[in-house]
Amino acid sequence: MSESELDELVRAVEATLFAAEEPMSAEAIATHLGGAEVRPALKALQEHYAKRGVRLVEYGKRWQFQTAPDLAHLLRREREQPRKLSRAATEVLAIVAYHEPVSRAEIEAIRGVQTSGGTLDVLMEAGWVRVVGRREVPGRPVIYATTPEFLIHFSLESRRDLPGIDELRAAGLLDPVDDAYEALTSGGSAETDEPEPADEPEEDEFVPLAHEESGD
What is the pLDDT of residue 159? Predict the structure, then answer.
């Protein structure tokens, strides 16, 4: 590919991403541009925007422009949109993220308590967990995994970037569920909950996962 052809492709990819309503994979961009090999253009754009007010970033194999981290505070709105997860949902999300693909029975074995279907429904409605198939064992239970939206929301390029226990504790993200997280990521059982009677609803402690809107 000549330099002029690459320049034109870079411009086309840039325009495509600016016009996109949601992050796009390299394959989707290529399809939109008639099958062109777009990775050299994406790399060139990433380098071009590296020191500018917006950056080209890749999360979960999807590309998007977002505000440079050091300028995000200039574009925040005063109003916050809190998203609250119950303690149960927080624990289930951690299990799915660190152990996926995982069935509901496996989630319950790790947590040490029964998990209601509503907890998984909340995570799927948030767009962070999805059904990815069935385990090939008797009963063929449904198995769950995280979504690209989960990676984007938490600014993770892939699951390999999930923080370890020490990082979570240093960031203050293990309060008040540090015992649960430590047990989950080590494959043990959380000792913070006890099973509740089947005829009583599970009590959820709400752990805020607030985020501020930014002008990405």
Answer: 81
Query: Rounded CA gap, 128 and 111, in Å?
Result: 19
Segment 165-199, tens digit of pLDDT: 666 556 544 444 444 445 444 544 444 343 333 34
Residue pair 77/192 in contact by the 8 Å Cβ criterion: no
Residue among 152, 68, 52, 36 at smallest CA distance from 13 = 36
176-to-40, 86, 205 alpha-carbon distances in Å = 45, 12, 9
CB of 92 closer than 8 Å to CB of 80: no
**Please, which residues have CB within 8 angstroms of residue 204's CB and are 6 or more apart in sequence?**
86, 87, 88, 89
Q: Which residue has the tokens 């541009």?
A: 33
Instruction: Output the pLDDT for position 73.
Output: 74
What architecture is the 80-212 domain classified under in CATH? Orthogonal Bundle (1.10)
SS3 111: helix
Only one residue has tokens 């309503």, namely 21
163 in helix, strand or coil?
coil
**Fold designation for 3-75:** Arc Repressor Mutant, subunit A (1.10.10)
Query: Which residue did the predictor score with more confidence, 99 or 72?
Result: 99
Global pTM exceeds 0.70:
no
